[in-house]
Amino acid sequence: MPDTPEVDFIRQQYAFAAHIRDPRHQPPPEGIEDRRLGIYRELFFNNIENFLSNSFPVLKRILAPSAWLALARDFFAHHRCHSPLFLEIPREFLNYLEIERGERAGDPPFLRELAHYEWVELALSVAEEPPPPSVEAQGDLLAAAPVLSALAWPLAYHYPVHRIGPEFQPQAPLAQPVYLLVYRDPADEVGFLELNAVSARLFALLQQEPRRDGRSLLRQIAQELAHPQPPQVVQGGAEILEQWRQLGIVLGTARPPERPRE
């Protein structure tokens, strides 16, 4: 392609962007004062780093300052975002950690799981709420089919990510995965619950078989556990369902279909 003012301008733009992203390895474009470039280098990187700091505060606190800045710098230099939206940057950072970066010396073993856990809170806080289904808000959760909120997401991790911080950094995975439930309540506040074997299985069944009543689901769980007293499982499950209703995880019970008028 012959040199023209337009082509030269495009080359300058690419050289400028490459240098701003990775000033250590990409030379600055010609004819621009380094003091001016320094303003852009600092402005662009600080903007991204600040957004990552607000989105992944625990991850930042557990890493040494130099390690955190190196991580943010590597993401800024090498990852190609596919969305122009600032709210998508945490998802892009997670893609970078999970797909592109790979494991590196000095990384905590739970790095990607912790990042995912922190991303979920932001993702759920801005998730669009679908139209609410038609439910009986105070319906009998045992006699009818409980209806789950679309803003309740089950999670499973090999590390207890909800407890990780500067004072607690496990170096080996758990013998059994930890099951968590993240939800957005009616006041649009995000909360987390740790699930046990019964509540994790109950949530899974509610997702898989949304038309079954709560009592039959709990009886199935009691049978799967070979529990000697199934009524105790049903009673305990009823309390779980009621707690979930108070938190907005369960919206109520499905309305029976209307009978056609004769």
Protein described:
- The protein has 262 residues and is mostly helical.
- It has two domains: 1-107, no CATH class; 130-262, Alpha-Beta Complex (Outer Surface Protein A, domain 3), CATH 3.90.930.50.
- Helix content is 50%, strand content 11%.
- The chain has helices at 5-21, 34-55, 57-62, 65-78, 89-101, 111-126, 197-208, 214-225, 230-247, and strands at residues 135-136, 146-148, 152-157, 178-184, 190-195, 250-254.
- The protein has a three-stranded antiparallel beta sheet with strand order 1-6-2. Strands 3-4-5 form a three-stranded antiparallel beta sheet.
- A hairpin with a 5-residue loop joins strand 4 (178-184) and strand 5.
- The chain is elongated.
- 21% of the residues are buried.
- The mean pLDDT is 88.
What's the structural blueprint in terms of helices and strands?
Blueprint: H1 5-21, H2 34-55, H3 57-62, H4 65-78, H5 89-101, H6 111-126, E1 135-136, E2 146-148, E3 152-157, E4 178-184, E5 190-195, H7 197-208, H8 214-225, H9 230-247, E6 250-254
Antiparallel strand pairs: 1-6, 2-6, 3-4, 4-5
